[in-house]
Specification:
The protein is of the alpha/beta class and 375 residues long. The protein has two domains: 2-136, Rossmann fold; 137-311 and 342-367, Dihydrodipicolinate Reductase, domain 2. The chain is built from nine helices and 17 strands. The chain has helices spanning 24-36, 50-60, 69-76, 90-99, 114-127, 141-151, 189-205, 316-328, 343-363, and strands at residues 15-20, 40-46, 65-66, 80-83, 103-106, 131-133, 158-166, 208-216, 221-223, 231-233, 239-246, 251-257, 266-273, 276-282, 289-294, 301-302, 366-367. It has a nine-stranded mixed β-sheet with strand order 16-15-14-13-7-12-11-8-17. Strand 13 (266-273) and strand 14 (276-282) form a beta hairpin. Helix 1 packs across helix 8, helix 4 runs parallel beside helix 5 (114-127) and helix 7 (189-205) crosses helix 9. The longest helix has 21 residues, at 343-363.
Length: 375
């Protein structure tokens, strides 16, 4: 399946990529996916601990390791940079790469604040570099399956929707504080996780024009990360809910929680339109299902995954990386696929998050389109 996505021929120059960030997702997906992508050469890895970076580089056949980001850029001079570091350093690193004329893939969210996200997008536009945001779910099989049903008109004109993303990673109040629990570092259920569902909503259903909701911190104090008896204050929300109005007139709800006992990574998306209702449901470690109730019968049935999008999990890193690289190389998406999201999409999703946070602070309904959102 992934061979049809290959982008390199014998006379195509190799696309040189440097990767900043060697966390779990980078190690499991981004680095091996890029290494396996035809025509791509991963020229360097960056992380704060050189010994760890060097070990990961050796295991993936990458020749250069760095604990200095600027030095990596200056010595390897890549065509593109992957910024997969903690959220609070995205802004500075992206600007460093953009100033050097390098194309950029940035993890979500773009910045800690909406203003940072806008500045990053403006800088990339002025520099004339291509951009991508790692909204991973656009590449997963269940989400692509749901998207194909929507594109085929099986839902029709959307009437309403309900989206839920539930995790239990912060349910235990004795778990020590970590950077994802600090809003000043870009943490929070809404910004760090919920932004995936905001992007999915835009991708599947259209632009959000207004929201009203609340983001709350259920567990407000946690043991300090250093251990002992010290207590630290949690500054990022661990649960959030909001109502959204879409450009086409549909309304619905988005709910995200990281304090749901029993949930590893549960996602449910229900889209109801004048031609039918489609439901995606998945939980980590369990088979995902996509069901459809067409208007003609009004009864739900599981829809088998189309052969051309079905993908074994061990092939996912390569397929995901190939889609992103096509975007960064300025190549069109393959037939039957959609364009990978760039910084404009990252800004649009973060505008919604920003609006929900303002609504939660007492602003009521907040406009989220470009002209009505905060500049």
């Amino acid at each position: 399946m992934t061979d049809r996505l290959a982008i390199r021929t014998d006379d195509t120059p190799r696309f040189r990529v440097a990767v900043a960030g060697v966390g779990s997702f980078s190690q499991r997906v981004l680095i091996p996916g890029l290494v396996a992508t035809p025509g791509v050469e991963v020229v360097g890895l960056f992380g704060p601990t050189l010994a760890k970076v060097s070990d990961i580089a050796a295991r993936n056949g990458v020749g250069a390791s760095f604990d200095d980001f600027r030095r990596m850029l200056d010595e390897t001079r890549p065509d593109s940079v992957v910024v997969a570091t903690p959220n609070d350093v995205h802004h500075a690193m992206v600007l460093e790469a953009v100033e050097r004329g390098m194309h950029v893939l940035c993890e979500k969210p773009l910045g800690v604040t909406f203003a940072e996200a806008e500045e990053m997008a403006r800088a990339a536009e002025v520099a004339g570099v291509r951009t991508a945001v790692n909204f991973t779910y656009r590449s997963t099989v269940p989400f692509k399956h749901l998207w194909t049903l929507v594109q085929a008109g099986r839902v029709g004109r959307l009437r309403h929707f309900a989206i839920s993303f539930q995790q239990g990673i912060r349910a235990d109040p004795t778990a020590p504080i970590a950077f994802r629990m600090l809003r000043e570092r870009g943490g929070g259920a809404l910004l760090d996780v919920g932004i995936h569902m905001v992007d999915a909503l835009r991708w599947l259903a259209g632009e959000v024009v207004a929201v009203s909701g609340a983001a709350r911190t259920v567990v407000t104090m946690r043991p300090d990360a250093a251990g002992g008896t010290a207590i630290a204050r949690v500054t990022a929300d661990d649960t959030a809910s909001f109502v959204a109005c879409l450009e086409g007139g549909a309304t619905g709800t988005v709910q995200v929680s990281q304090v749901a006992y029993g949930r590893a990574s549960y996602r449910r998306i229900e889209l109801s339109g004048d031609e039918g209702t489609a439901v995606l449901e998945e939980e980590r470690g369990e088979p995902a299902t996509v069901r459809l109730a067409p208007a003609s019968t009004g009864r739900f049935a599981v829809v088998p995954t189309p052969f051309d999008i079905d993908l074994p999990f061990d092939e996912f890193p390569r397929a995901h990386a190939i889609r992103i690289v096509r975007r960064l190389r300025g190549l069109p998406p393959v037939q039957g696929d959609d364009a990978w999201p760039g910084f404009a999409d990252g800004v649009a999703a973060q505008r919604v998050v920003d609006a929900v946070e303002r609504s939660s602070s007492g602003a009521g309904w907040v406009a989220t389109h470009a002209d009505g959102g905060r500049r």
